[in-house]
Amino acid sequence: MNKKIMLSVLSAALVGAGLLTVNQVSAQEATINPHDSLIQRLGGKFGLNETKVKQVFKEVHEARHAEMSKHMEDRLSQAVNDRKLTEEQKQNILAKHEEMKANREQTMESFKKMTKAERRTAIKTKHQELRTWAEDNDIPMEYFIFRMKAMKGVHRGDFHMKIAD
User: What is the 3-state secondary structure (H, E, C) of the chain?
Assistant: First the structure.
């Protein structure tokens, strides 16, 4: 099979896996990257170098996040144009999103050391902190866009997540 076709198949598999996989931590997976198993299987099945397969996963992951960020910024710009948000609110949302993104790895590491109940409590606390931040900045939660599987009301098509009560 030609390498372009293999990379296309690999990319499609990665995108599919990426859509199904959200940062989820369980006690059994605390020390394992959830993609490692898939990377090993794809490498073995198609005779591909695992380092190159990991690089493709990384590239697709980065492209997906860039796409999501662009979509978020476009959506916020439209809200400003529609006078549903101010430019200052938009900038506050973008800054908060970057702050959360910067802290994501540390947060996930801390989750690995927690029980399921402790993670649930920590997530609820983070939700409440975000709600309070949004209220303090007069920002409707519907315009604050972020991903976390533990939340309910996921609408992947428009990357909008409603905070569950």
Answer: CCHHHHHHHHHHHHHHHHHHCCCCCCCCCCCCCCCHHHHHHHHHHHCCCHHHHHHHHHHHHHHHHHHHHHHHHHHHHHHHHCCCCCHHHHHHHHHHHHHHHHHHHHHHHHHHCCCHHHHHHHHHHHHHHHHHHHHHCCCCHHHCCCCCCCCCCEEHHHCEECCCC
Amino acid found at 146: F
Distance CA 140, CA 39 (A): 40
- Look up residue 159 and give its two tokens: 């990357």
Q: pTM surpassing 0.70?
A: no
| CB atoms closer than 10 angstroms to residue 63 | 12
User: 114-144, pLDDT tens digit by residue?
Assistant: 999 999 999 999 989 999 999 999 998 887 6
152 confidence band (pLDDT: 50, 70, 90): very low
Residue that is written with structure tokens 């990257």 in the block: 33
